[in-house]
Each structure stands twice: as C-alpha cells, then as structure tokens.
C-alpha cells in the first residue's frame, strides 16, 4: 500500500458536488468537507449543508492504485485546475486531512440532531443575547439580508431601529 498523495483541486463555481461525483465515478478517493450553515429563507431560519471550502476539494491521487493521472483529474467535469506552485502540485499532508475530517464529524454530529428554530416574525418580542445591548428586550422588525435583522429597542421612551446579527437575538418565549 502506498502513502496518501492528497492534492488540492480548484473547482468551477458551485460545482463541488459535480466534480466530486465525476472523480469518484473514475475511482478517485475524494473529500469535500461539509458544514451546516444557518440561513434565512422566506423569513424562517433553516440549516443547510455547504462546502467548508467553497470552490475547492481534495483528492488522493495514486495513479498506481486507481489509474487517475493529473491529466484525467484536470479534465474531469467540474474541475478547474490542480492547485500548485508553478507546475508542481501542492501536496496536502494526511494529518491535515484527518484533522479536517475529525472536526467535520464533530460539527455534523453536534448540529444534525438539533432542529433549526423558526425565526422571529415582525412584532415578536426578542431578547438580545450578545453585544452592547445584551440583556435588553426588543421588538423584531424585519430581516436585513441573511446575517442581520433590524430590531426596535426602547431607548429614552422611543423605539430606535438597530441592526443586529441574527446570532445575537432569540425569540422571547
């Protein structure tokens, strides 16, 4: 058995899974780390699985075992190029791949059992969990993109709109 020869591949935009599938069809030992990300979709928070390194994946290129050459890897659907310095491809240490796999496994195991909470709706009472307004109660106004929301905080008997990260607020029970 030969030693692992992990290479880093740059793939075409949003085609990590396409490249992975095509390389695995050619008996390639590929790895595309995944992570759970919380996003807002139609006013609700949902958990989606995305590539940890968008635009990249790893392949264990061992031509004597699986017959994959640099040329066949580069010409696979979804693959843009083999990342390297000049003409020499970068070799990724096996220890780094093992560490990424371990962290990915821990992350997926911890978050997959938790269901995604529904986000607050306009007019809901919320608690602020972090930041300079920590501990204050506010009223949810609306979302501002996927990462932030606008909330109304009562300051000096006046409701002031404030932009806060979605991770810093929680719907009041």
Give a quick set of tags describing it:
five-stranded antiparallel sheet; elongated; single chain; 4 helices; SH3 type barrels; alpha+beta
Assign a percent range to the helix content.
Answer: 10-25%
The ordered H/E elements are: EHEEEEHHEEEEHEEEEE
Number of helices: 4
Shape: elongated
Distance N terminus to C terminus? 58 Å
What is the fourth-level CATH superfamily of the largest domain? Answer: NusG, N-terminal domain
Query: Got a strand count?
Result: 14
Question: Strand-residue fraction?
Answer: 35-45%
Word description of this protein:
The structure is a single chain. The protein is of the alpha+beta class and 173 residues long. The chain has two domains: 107 residues, NusG, N-terminal domain (Alpha-Beta Plaits, 2-Layer Sandwich); 47 residues, SH3 type barrels, CATH 2.30.30.30. Helices cover 22% and strands 41% of the residues. The chain contains four helices and 14 strands. Strands 1, 2, 5, 6 and 9 form a five-stranded antiparallel sheet that branches. Strands 13-12-11-10-14 form a five-stranded antiparallel sheet, with no helix packed on it. The radius of gyration is 22 Å and the shape is elongated. 15% of the residues are buried. About 3% of the residues have low confidence.
